[in-house]
Design brief:
By secondary structure, the protein is an alpha+beta fold. Helix content is about 30%, strand content about 20%. The protein has a six-stranded mixed sheet with strand order 18-19-17-20-21-22, with helices on both faces. A four-stranded mixed sheet has the order 6-11-10-8, with no helix packed on it. Helix 13 links the parallel strand 20 and strand 21. Helix 1 crosses helix 2 and helix 2 runs parallel beside helix 6. Pfam families: Cadherin-like, NXPE4_C. This is CPED1 protein.
């Protein structure tokens, strides 16, 4: 499999040469290390060597712009990089590696007769009467040298899946060996070491000739059928017993003091078999696209067609997509150059785009050679237009994800008393942003959500109303104020909604992941700044802390008054907890800003889908969000902060998320040019029917949406759920200026 690995990744050059180069690089490093080790051992600062010692080591090999490798690091132990400890194949492989190693080291197979036969062929020697062997120069081999050679012959018979690299009879290695020793040992003190090298390499040649079991070419090794699966390439060195070495320090990347005569062993790496072609005309093509559930692609798949379209129903919230390249030297990656070849995707309402990239991996630096695009349109909730006969239904949670198992889920009929209470003309203004409520919608039947007019859904707090402010009221409310946002993209969506409400237009927009300041709000009368937190893409130990991020935002937003003219809005999906609120309190006290207005956006639904590349919550973890949310709200109010409860608003409509892996975005910023928008998307709230007595504020929201959509604003913040809790944010921002509002 290691051979197969080289065939795939070096198919445009020379796989066998690349493999041989790797073996040669390892051998050279061992020999160079040995030269200095033996030189030190024979010098004045010689060290005590260990007899009968061995050590397992692991090589990291890198290939750059050619087929010539570099030894990046040598680990002083058996370093098997197993990312998934529960992987049965990897665990089996580890056991197999150790099993072969012990067989290699502790073989009981006799090798004396093989050694005598091979040695006689080398020297034509005979055994003297005193039991010693005589070389041509009449110098006798020591018992230690003889034992070393006998042990070497025994190991050759027990290699298993290992391959011997050193000693080597290759002329290039032999020449290097002599040059090295003559360079560092001009006095020829290490002549016996060179002789032992020659003896062992000669024994190897004779042994291979005798057994015909040399497996060094690709064609021969391919025929072996007992190779084991492996996801690693592992190099192991074992030192012979006739001389020894100083133990290797764990702190060293490349051990420096090794014994002579290394036996280098390696296992193979796993290569994925697949149907493919080496024809250059197929370099930019994919062979097939996999989807689960199966998508009805339009047009039907053809490798030469680059763009596809599919529609899926509202209840289909995820799809698994994968692809396979046509060419053997290419790989497929989803969305980015180093992305996976298959992944589970969330499907937000409206348009979703999946990009399939094909990279040519035959180059040292893989290059993108082509791309395919799949556009998937996910439909809105099935909805019927409102008829004369209808009933009002309400819900807090969806039966597909019951956050509160002890409470009812799905549509429930609303009583006449409740309807009468919410239809009064003068309504009390809600005193906080966490007033419990429910979604209400007109339906033909509360037992079938397909009979509802979902365009007329509205959020109804219990016993009060959040009033929708007209544009002049909003502008007066924020005039002279400095409004600071800190949080993730959901907080950023609320900020852009606020800017659009105040300015009537949204002139600029970007997915800011740093600090951004806006001086052109409300004709320059309002300042808004934003800081993205947390910076999840950074390593944990390198991320700025919340305290540091907050301090930086305050510094960038100065001058700040210690009054409610300064507003700090904090929140996100699920990173916020009560500890962050204590940090806010500490920082504001330290900066002499304890009297500013602080508004906490609580957590929201998200991360509830099994999506690749992010942490997904289990149902139990999703249910626990309820208690976490309550703790945040209670802590915030104890500090005297205003709150906006986004969790209770999003949990019942968790399927209505828009684009994004987290499934937590209930807003999107789009270009306002109608010609650039999909005709399928109808997220704007529809005209007001005959529901005035129940949906007074809904009518105002519809008018706001229609006004903004019809304006000449370059961008527009879209999403009715984001609109609801952003209007609640505005109500808390301007709460001190109103008491009763007539609908």
């Amino acid at each position: 499999q290691l051979q197969r690995f080289f065939e795939i990744f070096f198919k445009n050059s020379s796989p066998q040469q690349a493999l041989n180069n790797m073996k040669e690089a390892i051998s050279k490093l061992l020999l160079i290390t040995e030269v200095f080790s033996e030189s030190s051992a024979s010098g004045p600062n010689s060290f005590n060597q260990c007899s009968q010692c061995f050590q397992m080591l692991t090589f990291d090999i890198g290939f750059g712009t050619s087929i010539h490798p570099v030894v990046l690091e040598v680990h002083e132990n058996f370093d098997f990089q197993d990312e998934d400890e529960s992987n049965i194949q990897d665990q089996t492989l580890k056991e197999f590696l150790f099993e072969d190693t012990f067989k290699f080291l502790l073989s009981n197979e006799s090798s004396t007769s093989s050694f005598i036969e091979a040695f006689q062929k080398i020297y034509g020697s005979t055994v003297s009467k005193d039991g010693t062997y005589h070389r041509e120069d009449e110098q006798c081999l020591s018992l230690e040298e003889i034992n070393s050679m006998i042990t070497f012959m025994k190991e050759l018979k027990s290699l298993g899946q290992f391959e011997l690299l050193v000693p080597s009879a290759a002329p290039k290695i032999q020449t290097l060996l002599h040059d090295l020793y003559h360079m560092v040992d001009p006095m020829r003190r290490l002549g016996s070491v060179l002789t032992m090298h020659w003896l062992l390499s000669s024994l190897l040649e004779q042994f291979q000739s005798m057994t015909k079991e040399a497996h060094t070419s690709l064609s021969e090794w391919r025929s072996k059928k007992n190779s084991k699966n492996s996801s690693q390439t592992i190099m192991k060195w074992l030192h012979p017993r006739n001389s020894s070495q100083e133990s290797v320090s764990p702190k060293q990347n490349v051990p420096s003091d090794f014994k002579k005569n290394y036996e280098v062993l390696h296992y193979s790496s796993k290569a994925k078999d697949r149907q493919c072609s080496y024809d250059k005309d197929t370099l930019s093509h994919i062979r097939q696209i996999f989807t689960s559930p199966q998508l009805d692609l339009n047009p039907q798949f053809n490798p030469k067609i680059r763009e596809y379209y599919a529609e899926v129903p509202f209840d289909m919230v995820t799809v698994k997509i994968g692809a396979e390249p046509s060419n053997c030297q290419c790989q497929v990656h989803l969305d980015e150059k180093k992305g996976p070849s298959i992944a589970n995707y969330p499907l937000g309402l409206g348009l979703n785009k999946v990009i399939i990239l094909i990279t040519d991996d035959s180059q040292p630096s893989p290059q993108v050679v082509s791309s395919y695009k799949i556009t998937i349109y996910r439909e809105d909730r099935p909805s019927l237009p409102l008829f004369d006969e209808y009933m009002m239904c309400g819900f807090v949670q969806d039966c597909g994800s019951r956050i509160r198992p002890e409470e009812s889920c799905g549509l429930q009929p609303l009583s006449h008393e409740y309807l009468s209470a919410i239809s009064q003309t003068v309504f009390k203004t809600c005193e906080g942003g966490d007033t419990k409520g429910q979604w209400i919608v007109p339906c033909l039947s509360c037992s079938d959500n397909r009979t509802c007019d979902w365009r007329e859904i509205t959020w109804q707090p219990h016993g009060c109303q959040y009033s929708v402010l007209a544009k002049p009221e909003v502008q007066r409310c924020v005039e002279g104020r400095r409004i600071l946002f800190i949080g993730d993209s959901t907080n950023r969506g609320m900020m852009y909604y606020l800017i659009e409400r105040v300015n009537k237009t949204l002139q600029e927009w970007q997915k800011t992941h740093g600090v951004k300041c806006y001086h052109n709000i409300n004709e320059g009368k309002t300042f808004i700044s934003y800081s993205y937190y947390p910076q999840f893409w950074m390593n944990t130990n390198q991320r700025p802390t919340f305290e540091k991020a907050l301090e930086q935002l305050l510094q960038r937003s100065r001058p700040l008054e210690n009054t409610d003219q300064t507003v700090l809005i904090v929140g996100g999906v699920q990173w916020l907890n009560s500890n962050h609120l204590q940090i806010i309190q500490k920082v504001l006290n330290r900066e002499n800003l304890s009297n500013i207005l602080v508004i906490i956006k609580s957590i929201g639904m998200g991360f509830h889908l099994p999506v690749d590349g992010i942490h997904s919550l289990s149902q139990a973890e999703v249910q626990n969000l309820w208690n976490e949310n309550l703790l945040i709200l209670d802590t915030a109010k104890n500090f005297g902060y205003e709150v906006v409860d986004t969790f209770v608003i999003t949990m019942g409509r968790y399927k209505e998320f828009l684009q994004g892996k987290c499934g937590c975005h209930f807003h999107e910023v789009v270009k306002s040019n109608p010609s650039e928008e999909s005709p399928h998307i109808t997220m704007t709230l529809s005209r007001h029917y005959t529901l005035g007595k129940y949906f007074g504020n809904q009518s105002k929201l519809s008018q706001l949406q229609d006004y903004v959509t019809n304006s000449q604003s370059p961008y527009h913040v879209r999403g009715p759920i984001n609109q609801v809790y952003s209007e609640i944010l505005l109500s808390r921002l301007c709460a001190s200026k109103r008491e009763l509002v007539s609908t």
